[in-house]
Amino acid sequence: MNKIRKGDEIVVITGKDKGRRGTVLQVYDDQRVLVEGVNVAKKHQKPNPNMGVPGGIIDREMPMDVSNVMVFNPKSKKGERVGIRVNDGGRKERIFRGSGETVDI
After folding, report:
1. Which of these, 31, 50, 71, 91, is most buried using a 10 Å CB contact count?
2. Does 103 reside within a domain?
3. 94, 3 contact by CB (below 8 A)
4. Would you say residue 1 lies in a domain?
């Protein structure tokens, strides 16, 4: 069970975008995440008239390591670590380490 999933709201804790919040668009197998509006890089793109793609310099989100982000807790208004707990029914659930509350999706 992954601690960070697609659709989670996260906070960047280190790097050039420290403190920015965004939504996870994709989680890769090599422990990287793609976050909306975070870690944006410039890409030089050739035009392709057959596909209708214009040329120029475009902004593109790049993946970042999962260790550089934390899940945002709306009650405490900050990023918190996430753990996994087995509930009474035998199912696994994600919880915030600081408060013990479940992570709502």
Report:
1. 71
2. no
3. yes
4. no
